[in-house]
Each structure stands twice: as structure tokens, then as C-alpha cells.
Design goal:
With about 325 residues, the chain is α/β, with parallel strands linked by helices. The protein contains eleven helices and twelve strands. The strands form two sheets. It has a seven-stranded parallel beta sheet, with helices on both faces. Strand 10, helix 10 and strand 11 form a beta-alpha-beta unit.
């Protein structure tokens, strides 16, 4: 029977889901969290290891002689040293596209938070503001209509493409910076270069991979090109933006808002400059974590293990 160890099962399944399907495939041990110094000891006898954010590098791999399979409980697989795994004959899999709908939804949850300020008014009205208002209606913030606004999308993978579809349904103009050919883009999406995208977009949404060329793509220089009314949304990777540069731009009112579900360091230090900015809207890396997306994640991760044990691995990286 296969020995299966889950190193950090809590975020994917804090108790509302079940590992029972996986348990039919072997002897399963679930750890809610694993410190780096405990990884080797906990995985020492495992044939199969599942990890979300626990790093499995060359050092760990070389100390795990029984290990035959690493399943990443996410789409990104930078937590595994792929080259070292391949050198040791270890199969590595991920879970692609399980969170596309949920992340795209979070993009617009953030955007509507800024444009419609629902929470602001709900809090006021719980305190009696509307009840004591002399008129049938009141507003003390700018309210913005999305129709006709330009959204610039950096990266047109699964999530970026879904964001574009939703934006078109709102009546927005969609521009994209993408490696895809312009003639292959769906109707309504205009391909453009990065400088034009940054300087003409009312909303800029980040959906590209984190590479050496995209790290700090949003920085002090690119922020100076943006409209003062611009809203920047990052549900991709934290280091796509320079946290301090964005905080400075908000402080100086050079952009209107920054919305992010990811930060450069997670969890962030208490002195992260974005956490204190009034017009920075930060959620704790939860765009992927709807119940529906997590059900898909656990199911596909289990199916990946099943396929591996049958000798027909799927979603390999």
C-alpha cells in the first residue's frame, strides 16, 4: 500500500472537505502545517508527498530515498526543484486551472469594492447614517460606472482570458499585453505594448507569471505613466509589483487604488507599507479558496495520484 503524506493540508482543507477518496489509494498522513526543518522527517517513509507551499528542494529530495511522486496542491510548482526531482526519477504533478473562475471573480470583487463602495455604505448604515438622512438617498464617495472604461490585462492565460470575458460583459474596453498573436485574440480584445497598456488603462489587472522580466513590472517608473484615476489589481504574484513604490503612489495620490490578493511576502510583515494605505485593498491570498475551487483541487490532486499509481501519470510538470 502506498504511503502518502500531505505536508500542509490546512489551507486546502481546513476541515470542511474530506480526504476519504485519497485514503482509498494508500495510507494517508495529513499534517496541517510543516516547518522546513521537519519536512524530511515527516516525509522520510513516504512514497507520495503532497505539498502546497512547503518547499521540496534538492536537499530534501536527496534525503528521501522512498519518494516516487510529488503532487503540488496548486497550479504553480515553484515549491519543487523540478530538475532534482527528474534526476531522481520522481514524478511531479500540479493541478491546473482549478481556480480560474474563483480568481476572476475576485478581480471584480476587488474592482467593485473600489467603484461602488458597498462595504463603506453598509457600515455607515448599520450605524444609522441613512436612517438619519434628510433625503431618500445620499453618497459621500465617488461612484464609478465600469461600462466604457478601459481594462488592461497583463497576461492572457486561463485567468486573464476569463477576466477579459467578464469585462466585455460589463461593457468595458479590453486591452491586453500578451505573447499571443493579435489575430488569435477573441473579438473585443486589443493587443498592445506594455507602455500603452499602462498609460491608457483605467484598470490594470495582473495575470502574468513571475519571471525575471516581470518581477516589479509595476514600479516607480511605470506608476508615473498611469492615470491618476487608475486602479491596479494584482491577483497574480506579489512580486509583480514593488510594494513600496505602490504605497508611495497611493500616498501621493498618483493612482486611485491598489487591490491585491497577493503580496511579496506572505504572510506580510506588520510594517508592510501597503497595509496602512487607506486606498490599498488587501485580501489574504484567498482568491483561489472558494469551496468550489478547493473541491476541484482536492479531487484533481486525488485523480493525479490515482493515475500515477495506475502507471499513467497526468498533469505532470
Amino acid at each position: 500500500m502506498a504511503r502518502i503524506v500531505i505536508l500542509d493540508g490546512y489551507t486546502a482543507n481546513p476541515g470542511d472537505l474530506s480526504w476519504k477518496d485519497l485514503e482509498t489509494l494508500g495510507q494517508v498522513t495529513v499534517y496541517e502545517r510543516t516547518k522546513p526543518e521537519d519536512t524530511v522527517a515527516r516525509a522520510a517513509e513516504a512514497d507520495i508527498v503532497l505539498t502546497n507551499k512547503v518547499m521540496i528542494g534538492r536537499t530534501e529530495i536527496e534525503q528521501l530515498p522512498h519518494l516516487r511522486y510529488i503532487g503540488v496542491l496548486a497550479t504553480g510548482y515553484n515549491v519543487v526543484d523540478i530538475m532534482a526531482a527528474h534526476e531522481h526519477g520522481i514524478i511531479v504533478t500540479n493541478v491546473p486551472a482549478y481556480s480560474t473562475e474563483s480568481v476572476a471573480q475576485m478581480v471584480f470583487a476587488h474592482l467593485l469594492t473600489v467603484t461602488n463602495r458597498i462595504e463603506h455604505y453598509a457600515i455607515q448604515n448599520r450605524a444609522g447614517r441613512w436612517s438619519n438622512n434628510p433625503d431618500f438617498s445620499y453618497s459621500d464617495t465617488v461612484l464609478t460606472e465600469l461600462a466604457g472604461k478601459t481594462i488592461g490585462i497583463v497576461g492572457l492565460g486561463n485567468i486573464g482570458s476569463r477576466v477579459a470575458q467578464i469585462a466585455l460583459a460589463f461593457g468595458m474596453k479590453v486591452k491586453a499585453f500578451t505573447s499571443k498573436s493579435a489575430d488569435l485574440l477573441p473579438d473585443g480584445i486589443q493587443k498592445t505594448d506594455m507602455q500603452e497598456l499602462i498609460s491608457t488603462s483605467d484598470i490594470l489587472s495582473m495575470h502574468c507569471p513571475l519571471t525575471d522580466s516581470t518581477r516589479h513590472l509595476i514600479n516607480a517608473d511605470t506608476l508615473r505613466l498611469m492615470k491618476k484615476t487608475a486602479i491596479v489589481i494584482n491577483t497574480g504574484r506579489g512580486p509583480l509589483v514593488d510594494d513600496q513604490a505602490v504605497a508611495d503612489a497611493l500616498e501621493q495620490k498618483r493612482i486611485t487604488a491598489y487591490c491585491a490578493d497577493v503580496l511579496t511576502e506572505e504572510p506580510p510583515k506588520a510594517d508592510n507599507p501597503l497595509l496602512k494605505q487607506q486606498n490599498a485593498y488587501i485580501t489574504p491570498h484567498i482568491a483561489w479558496a472558494t469551496t468550489e475551487a478547493r473541491v476541484r483541487l482536492v479531487q484533481v490532486a486525488t485523480d493525479n495520484v490515482r493515475a500515477f499509481l495506475k502507471g499513467t501519470p497526468q498533469n505532470t510538470v
